[in-house]
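Hey all, sorry for the wall of text incoming. These are the two entities for the joint prediction.
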Amino acid sequence: MSSRDAAESQRLRDLALLRRVRDRMDREYAQPLDVEALARGVNMSAGHLSRRFKAAYGESPYSYLMTRRIERAMALLRRGDLSVTDVCFAVGCQSLGTFSTRFSELVGMSPSDYKVRSRQEMAGVPSCESKKVTRPVRNPVRNREAPLAGRS
Amino acid sequence: MDISIHTTFLPQDDPDAALGFYRDTLGFELRNDVGYEGMRWLTVGPPQQPGVNIVLHPPGADPGTTDEERKVIAEMMAKGTYASIMLATPDLDSTFDQLQASDVEVVQEPTDQPWGMRDCAVRDPAGNMVRIQQMGS
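and here's what came out:
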């Protein structure tokens, strides 16, 4: 094997390792997971993992994990029977402040405003339809922050 | 017109590993196994759907693919963003238990999705995303 082939094989193994980190966030986002724990799982330093992950996926592992949590939080808040605090902990966030800040940055309004507004908007709409209409849109949300004025 | 889906394609970078997953883990049957110049094309499908086939193929075998494109495809497969398939089963939870007992990479345990579906997700050995949903949900 030429050194170029060997380097490419190593690169593919590294990318597969990053894929496992990303899949672990999808699988365990509701656990108290942080970048340090993720990095330990693949024997990397947190800084190294963050740089490599961002180079591969265009966002840091922290951003990916928080977006995953906020998406799930949106779904839970729309149910209407859980408090913002309950939802915060249910999606693996341990700080209500960090959760609310990140939620507002991504969604364009606070979790409590979102909960109230989603109930009002969907009042009278059959639940099978509201499920479709309000499902979180994963990719367009990622990497982009909603305008502060709220969703149009 | 009366057109049905006959064959679809998923990339593989290790034919034996792909066969282990689709035949031995998922229970698909091997319908064809074609080798050419060190590459293999494996045709598999579920026994109860004899007319629906998946060809597990070496990506970039088309001579019109450039080296640069082959490299990009291999990297996207490794990072898990290249290809995916959605399957369905009448008993998701028992299927998932069996998958978890083998050594597949689990991406998502069975979950009720907000849009009303219940599904789980795993990776095949090539890094393709395999989502499995509860039939009739």
